[in-house]
Write a structure and sequence with these properties.
By secondary structure, the chain is mostly beta strands. 0% of the residues lie in helices and 51% in strands. It is globular, with a radius of gyration of 14 Å.
Amino acid sequence: QVQLVESGGGLVQAGGSRRLSCAASGRTFSGYTSTYTMAWFRQAPGKEREFVAFITWSWRGGSTTYADSVKGRFTVSRDNAKSTMYLSMNSLKPEDTAVYYCAAALRSAGPRVDQYDFWGQGTQVTVAS
């Protein structure tokens, strides 16, 4: 089945930037022609996992959607040749501190956790004030 591995987390100062990567194993998505979605979620200590952004592809083309809390600061993108999804984070705030997870669904999906079938192990992002 699909395996996802996140990387790029670490310590960053408030106002700084960081780019996360999510690599899918094998040729899982590079040659896939049907609708599929990849997404980023995050989970802070003591809180529920929350939606960050997703990117989806279908016969109509691709599109991206962002949570209001990160809109205008974060950008999700994908390198099809490398089967890798990225999350570029700018103007980071202490409240962005969380474990960031990538997820995938072999269909059109949205901001709900239960819509995704495959998950990575997460990467820690800590934003210092």
